[in-house]
Write a structure and sequence with these properties.
With 385 residues, the chain is of the alpha+beta class.
Length: 385
């Protein structure tokens, strides 16, 4: 009797349990596919980057034009030529000025010779006057003759001084003539490469009128020194100090990073219409061998390193929500748990974690999905390498 009663109760209980399992399996949410990354130790940097593309600039670049108008008579360089400091780049027709310079130098030579002769005569007159003065004291020379000789010596001395002044004047004329001649010539101010030439032999060039910019006759670039000028948001610029290390990425070189350091921070904020307010920061390249591969005008991005943590606990930055929460996948339970963390330094890739997770914990990196909540069932779709 007892066995029959037990069987009578066990069978309905098993049926109810099976139905409950069936209902639970068919009504519970499907596991969410999550991407995970193991918490590890490594380097985390705090960086700031430019808001718009920066530009590779030459340390020295000169856009030269003659200060007077004239016809191009000499153009000994071509676009792309390497030139040395002091080399002639362009010369206007200046035969009249050359003749004036030759005339001024000839007049200066004549003035020097005249001054020399006049001063020699003054010395002779002074010696004669001194001799007569001595004779006058003994009564051997008449007073009138002595006075005449003294006066003549003074006159000759004055003429000597005037001749010397004339020499200075003639030298000044030579300087003026040479200056006028120099205005017809363009001389390389430093070693560099000719980037642009606007003009041909026998063409007429004119200087830029006031307030109206015209293309330079010669554009010369110093290719021995380059830097990057990049706009940094005014909020980030306050933390930058000259000498801070930086990385430079150029579109022309793909993912290759160049090392650099901050060399200058602009003393004012740029406020351009429809753009965020920025501060121009200049980053110099620190490896001399890199300069040979650069061209002025390359677009560039800079990352200025404000602080570095070595061998610190870190998680992918994209895994963090609201700056202090992550979801940790628990493989033994097949669920995700929300975990608060204390973050430290951070960049686009990694964030330092002071507390809240342990090495090896699997943090969810696609935690921005709305269906991911604390305790939600989950399965790993793939682990980010």
């Amino acid at each position: 009797m007892i066995k029959k009663r037990l069987i009578r109760w066990i069978i309905p209980a098993l049926i109810i349990a099976a139905a409950a399992v069936f209902i639970w399996r068919n009504t519970r949410p499907d596991p969410i596919e999550v991407l995970v990354k193991a918490v590890d130790r490594g380097t985390v940097e705090k960086i700031v980057a430019n808001t718009r593309a920066g530009t590779v600039e030459a340390c020295r670049r000169a856009k030269l034009s003659p200060s007077i108008g004239g016809q191009i008579a000499k153009l000994p360089v071509r676009k792309g030529d390497s030139v040395r400091a002091g080399q002639l780049l362009l010369e206007l027709w200046n035969e009249d000025l050359v003749a004036q310079a030759v005339l001024a130098e000839s007049e200066a030579t004549t003035a020097r010779s005249t001054a020399k002769a006049t001063c020699l005569q003054a010395e002779v007159a002074q010696r004669d006057a001194n001799r007569l003065i001595k004779l006058r004291k003994t009564g051997a020379a008449p007073e009138e003759q002595t006075d005449r000789a003294v006066t003549q010596a003074k006159a000759q001395k004055a003429q000597c001084a005037a001749s010397k002044a004339a020499v200075q004047t003639s030298r000044a004329r030579v300087g003026v003539a040479r200056a006028n001649l120099a205005r017809t010539r363009l001389i390389a101010p430093f070693d560099g490469v000719i980037a642009e030439i606007n003009g041909e032999l026998s063409e007429y060039v004119t200087p830029s009128p006031i307030g109206i910019a015209t293309p330079p006759a010669i554009d010369i670039i110093d290719i021995a020194c380059f830097y990057v000028s990049a706009p940094i948001d005014e909020v980030d610029a306050a933390a930058i100090i000259e000498g801070m290390p930086a990385r430079v990425n150029l579109d022309a070189f793909g993912k290759r990073a160049f090392t650099g350091k901050v060399r200058r921070i602009a003393a004012y904020v740029l406020d351009r219409e429809k753009q965020a307010r920025t501060v121009d920061v200049e980053v110099a390249f620190t490896r001399p061998e890199d300069l040979n591969q650069l061209l002025a005008g390359y677009s560039a991005d800079v990352e200025i390193i404000l602080a570095v943590r070595e061998d610190t606990l870190r998680v992918p930055t994209q895994a963090i929500l609201d700056g202090e929460r992550v979801y940790v996948y628990l493989p033994d339970q097949g669920i995700v748990r929300e975990q608060k963390i204390a973050p430290g330094l951070s960049n686009w890739d990694f964030t330092e974690v002071i507390s809240g997770v342990n090495p090896g914990d699997l943090v969810v990196i696609n935690s921005d999905r709305a269906e991911i909540i604390d305790g939600a069932p989950a399965t790993v779709a793939g682990e980010k390498p």
